[in-house]
C-alpha cells in the first residue's frame, strides 16, 4: 500500500505525495539548523511530441530511462564536484511529480552556485541519446531553481518560484536552467559568459603577462620578477586574475593557461637575459591542478628545452595547500624538477597548514612571506614576531626570504632590520607589462 501511495509505478521514484511530505520535513530541518536548500523543477521539453511520435509505450520507456539517469546522477558524488558527507540521501532527493516532470531537492548546499552546477550536469545527462527499438531519441529539459532562505521560506512559495522559473526557461527555448531570482541568475549568466570567453582567450591571444619586480632589500637592485597573468578581453579591459583564475581552476582550463604562462615567461626571460650580464630570475605560479596533472613534469621539461632557458633562472612557486595530501609523491616530483636545475619557492608561507616537519624534506630554495603579515607589521606585534620567525627559520634552513605586499618605507625598513632578502610590492612597483619592466632592469646592452 505504501508503494502504491508514495511511489510512481513506472519510474519507481517517490511521487508527488512523498515529495510534499519530504519537502516540508527538509525545510523544517533547514530552518532549525540554519541550512540552505535548493529546489529544482525539471520538465522534459516538448515531451508530448515525443510521446505522440513513439506511442504510449515508447514514451514510457523514455521516461524510465531518463528517470534512471537522473537517479544515478543525483546520487553520484561528482554532482557537486566534491565528495558528499555520509548523509548523502538527505542531501539529494529526486521525485517524479507529474507526467514528464521531476523535482529534485538539494539540501546542505553552501551557495546557489552548487544548484546551478547540479542543474548543468543534469541537463548534460538528459541530452545523451535514449535508445528506443534501436533508434536514438534525443530529449532536452528545462529546469527552474528556487532557494531557501534567499527566495522563500515555505514549500508553496518555493515550489511556485521554481515552477515559474522552469516555465521561463522553457519559453526561452528550453534545454537550459533558470533561477527564480534575477540577481542570482544574472550572476551565473555572467559566470557562463566569462567561462565561454575564457575558453577562447588562448586562441584569440587575449592573455598577457605582467611582471612584478623582486627587489634586493639591502641594495634596491631587481633580482628577479614574478610573472602574473592578465586577461585582456574583447573590450580591451584587463580582467584581474582573482576574477578568472578560480573559474579556470574549476573548469580545468588552468592546465592550458598555466602551460601558456610558463612558455611565455620562459621565452621573455631568454630574450631579456641574452642582453644582460647580470641576469634576473623569473618566478611562475603553479596551481594545485597543474601540479596534479599527469603530464606536468614532462610539460615543464619540454618547455625548458624548447625555449632554451637557463633553468637556474626559472623559479616555480607552489602554495602550502599543494602539500596537504600525497606529500611524499609530490616531494618526488619536486626533486625531479630540481634535477632539471629549476628553483622552487613556497608562496604565501604561513597561511596554510603544512607541517614544519616536511619543510626540511621539501627541496625548496625560497619562502615567500604572505602580504597579510606585512600589511600591519608596524603596528601588530604578533605579525612582527611571525615575520621575524619565518626569516630566522628560512635562513637556518639555507633558504631565501621574499616579503610580499611591501607598500611603505616603514615596511622596507622593518625588513632590512630583520634581515629579509628580497621584497615585492607597490612601494617599488606594481605588476607592469614587459615593455615597462625593461626600463627598470639594469641592462648592460640594448635589447
Overview of this protein structure:
- The chain is α/β, with parallel strands linked by helices and 447 residues long.
- The protein contains 16 helices and 17 strands.
- It has helices spanning 2-6, 16-33, 47-75, 88-91, 112-127, 155-171, 182-201, 241-251, 254-273, 288-292, 296-307, 327-340, 371-374, 381-396, 409-418, 434-440; strands spanning 37-44, 92-98, 101-107, 130-132, 135-137, 141-148, 176-179, 207-216, 222-232, 238-239, 281-285, 314-319, 343-349, 366-369, 400-403, 422-423, 432-433.
- The protein has an 8-stranded mixed β-barrel with strand order 8-9-11-12-13-14-15-16, surrounded by 4 helices. A 5-stranded mixed sheet has the order 2-3-1-6-7, with helices on both faces.
- β2 and β3 form a beta hairpin.
- α9 runs parallel beside α11.
- The protein is elongated.
- The relative contact order is 0.08.
Summarize the structure.
The chain is an alpha/beta fold. It is built from 16 helices and 17 strands.
